[in-house]
Design goal:
The complex is a heterodimer of chains A (213) and B (176).
Chain A: H1 24-33, H2 37-59, H3 66-79, H4 90-115, H5 117-121, H6 140-156, H7 159-171, H8 175-182, H9 186-210
Helix pairs in contact in A: 1-2, 2-3, 2-4, 2-7, 3-4, 4-8, 6-9, 7-8, 7-9, 8-9
Chain B: H1 14-24, H2 33-55, H3 66-102, H4 131-140, H5 143-149, H6 152-159, H7 166-175
Helix pairs in contact in B: 3-4, 3-7
Classes of the chains: A mainly alpha (213), B mainly alpha (176).
Chain lengths: 213, 176
């Protein structure tokens, strides 16, 4: 694990994710190791949403049991309590656990999909629904279309590009931190994110003119 | 028949061609490398900004009460883990009880599977406790623990075991 990087090393599109600073997660983890159970409760309060968001963006909204996976992530945190050392941002360590679960889930899902009729019909995307899309009364339908397109474009990225892009864009991790999470090199991550963004740009280009930004 | 305008490949009349040649004197503007790079960077930054804005439209709505359910799941898991050793303890306590009953120390009544001692075996008493009874004493002290940690069904299961059960006796040997 590496320590948080210089902001200049953060990927394009990086933004503040609302994560507590400097590293509230690490502070809470250490407090919990010392026996403060309340610290663990706070840890769950602060990070369960981020874990859920990462799982949702990586696995997609149709994936069943995302909430169960959040629970599984924190059960693994409990098991790893004694082993944790604050050598990296807490979120980096946490997302490593999430990523391992994502890999397992992806493999399991591919096995399931292989057997499912949906896959044979190839109409999976038709069923992708824009849940939690808030419609604006004026341009609500267009906005929902845009969001649906964005989700579909992200879902079509290869796994490694998708996780790298999501961690960079939505969770504000640096190239080095993402490399730690997925067990790759910083250079490879840079390249992955560049390719992912190029793919997204090409795929979403028609929306750029439509969306008033 | 009057002759038509003089043919030229671009179809421009004579007067127009003169003007065209004149305009051609103005060299094609070219960008130097630095300016080209600057424009490229600006476009790239603009592309990034637009892409990020579009990506930013996708928000994840969290299910209500998520953190509470995660905490509950962790607590439930902790309880399950605590109960596992308790079950072993329960088996040991039950075995102890049965040995005690077998030694005739516990007044378990004269019916059912606890109507020990068997014929011909010496009868132990409070004044003259058997070795088995003494060995079982620490386990008997756990009765209170059994009462607190077990629900009625689990207690019933633990206490309804047959004292002649070879497995239990084996367990007692291993434990002790």
């Amino acid at each position: 694990m590496t320590l948080p990087q210089d902001p200049s090393q953060r990927p394009p599109g990086d933004r503040a994710s609302g994560e507590p600073s400097p590293d509230r997660g690490a502070e809470l983890m250490i407090a919990w190791q010392r026996g403060d159970d309340q610290a663990f409760h706070e840890l769950v309060d602060v990070y369960s949403g981020q874990v859920y968001a990462l799982l949702t963006r990586f696995l997609g909204r149709r994936h069943p049991g995302r909430e169960d996976l959040v629970q599984e992530v924190f059960l693994r945190v409990v098991k790893a309590r004694a082993r944790y050392t604050a050598t990296a941002r807490f979120s980096t360590w946490l997302y490593t656990i999430v990523w391992r679960l994502c890999i397992n889930e992806t493999e399991r899902s591919r096995g399931r999909r292989h057997l499912s009729l949906d896959a044979e019909l190839g109409d999976e995307k038709r069923l992708e629904l824009p849940d939690s899309v808030e419609l604006d009364p004026v341009d609500g339908v267009a906005r929902a279309d845009v969001i649906r397109e964005v989700r579909a474009a992200i879902a079509e990225l290869p796994d490694s590009q998708r996780i790298a892009m999501v961690l960079a864009r939505y969770h504000s991790l640096s190239f080095a931190e993402i490399a730690d999470v997925v067990g790759s090199s910083e250079k490879a991550i840079k390249s992955m994110i560049h390719r992912a963004r190029e793919t997204l740009r090409a795929r979403l280009q028609p929306l750029f003119e439509r969306e008033a930004i | 028949m009057t002759p038509g305008p003089k043919h030229n490949p671009r179809g421009i009349p004579e007067a127009g061609r003169e003007l065209d040649e004149l305009l051609g004197l103005d060299p094609t503007p070219t960008l130097n490398e630095e300016a080209r790079q600057r424009i490229h960077d600006q476009l790239s930054a603009e592309n990034d900004r637009v892409l990020d804005a579009v990506l930013g439209l996708d928000e994840v709505t969290l299910p209500g009460g998520l953190a509470g359910r995660v905490r509950a799941a962790v607590l439930a898991d902790r309880r399950r883990r605590r109960l596992r050793p308790v079950r072993w303890t329960a088996a040991a306590v039950a075995a102890g009880l049965l040995v005690a009953a077998g030694a005739g120390w516990l007044p378990l009544g004269g019916q059912g599977p606890f109507t020990l001692p068997l014929d011909g075996e010496p009868v132990a008493s409070l004044e003259n406790p058997s070795e088995e009874l003494l060995a079982a004493l620490p386990l008997l002290e756990s009765l209170e623990f059994l009462e607190q940690e077990f629900d009625p069904f689990e207690r019933e299961v633990a206490l309804a075991l047959d004292p002649r059960d070879a497995v239990l006796l084996e367990l007692l040997e291993l434990g002790g």
